Amino acid sequence: MVDQERLYLCSENRRKRLTPTDNHQRKIRFAEFRFYEELNDFLPAEQHKTSFRSPFYGHPSVKDTIQAMGVPHTAIDLILVDGQSVNFSHRLRGGERVAVYPVFERLDISPVIHLRPRPLRRTRFILDVHLGKLARYLRMLGFDAAYKRDWDDVTIIDLSLQQQRIILTRDLGVLKQSRVTHGYWLRHVDPQQQLQEVLLELDLFRQLQPFTRCMDCNGRIHQVDKAVISGQIDPVIYQRFREFWQCQDCMKIYWRGSHYDRMLRQVGKFSRELHHHSAE
Ligand SMILES: [Zn+2]
């Protein structure tokens, strides 16, 4: 353990270009950290799923210390210091044991106080500019997924706060901004895998409501009388399907075509809930 400490010290000193004089002026302290579940994705391999000691100077906040390790604060739901739930502003003194749990931890940790007064369980999303396909998939399954190709990071964060939306992004930089309260960093690049990831990690299978939202504009869609849309769509489609839906915002017309079936099959692999839902 002593050797390990020395190793950390060396690398820390190199990084901050400290001179021996600085060392005398600023006492180096250690706390023991342990990160749970998907928070390990942000850490180097040797720190995965194990306790490790980490050095710091002075009395930094637990938030700054954790962010300096590469874990964005938005991924965190709960921090226990020596078994007590603390806020992000809690200052470290050295010698404590710090346990850090992710936002979407599925273990029952309800008896302890969470960092956020109310979790955003009424799931609404805002997606960054590279996630247009994922936005369409989420809408297809009924999720409120705000997305526009020309939104910049500031706009996305503003809307996330104003409308209580979870930011979905592949850009860790967005989630590290201090204003952000709810965000999820996607591990996958492929849109279908991203959809699977979001559904699994956020445990959303019970919230699926296929055919309630417009894939193009995120507006609500409602079932319409077939006669009403006569003349507005291809006659072959009109003949072949009995049920039609229409977006109340952009007026786009929907029916349960092959694309919808393909999509349901894909998602259905991961959830018996969905099979139940689509059979209704
Ligand atoms: Zn629409």
Describe the model.
- By secondary structure, this protein is of the alpha/beta class.
- Helices cover 32% and strands 19% of the residues.
- It has helices spanning 2-16, 20-25, 62-68, 132-140, 153-162, 172-176, 191-201, 226-229, 235-240, 258-268, 272-278; strands at residues 28-35, 52-57, 76-81, 84-85, 97-102, 124-127, 144-146, 166-169, 183-185, 221-224, 244-247, 253-254.
- The strands form three sheets. The chain has a five-stranded mixed beta sheet with strand order 2-1-5-3-4. It has a four-stranded parallel beta sheet with strand order 7-6-8-9, sandwiched between helices.
- Helix 4 crosses helix 7.
- The chain is elongated and about 80 Å long.
- Zinc ion binds next to loops.
Can you tell me the residue ranges where pLDDT is under 50 for at least 5 consecutive residues? Answer: 1-24, 105-120
Q: Kindly state the mean pLDDT as a whole number?
A: 80
Task: State the end-to-end distance.
Answer: 60 Å
Number of helices: 11
Number of strands: 12
Widest β-sheet, arrangement of strands: 2-1-5-3-4
Report the β-strand fraction as a percent range: 15-25%
Associated small molecules: zinc ion
Number of domains: 2
Element order, helices and strands?
Answer: HHEEHEEEEHEHEHEHEHHEEHH
Radius of gyration: 24 Å
Assembly type of the chains comes to single chain
The helix content, as a percent range, equals 25-40%
Shape: elongated
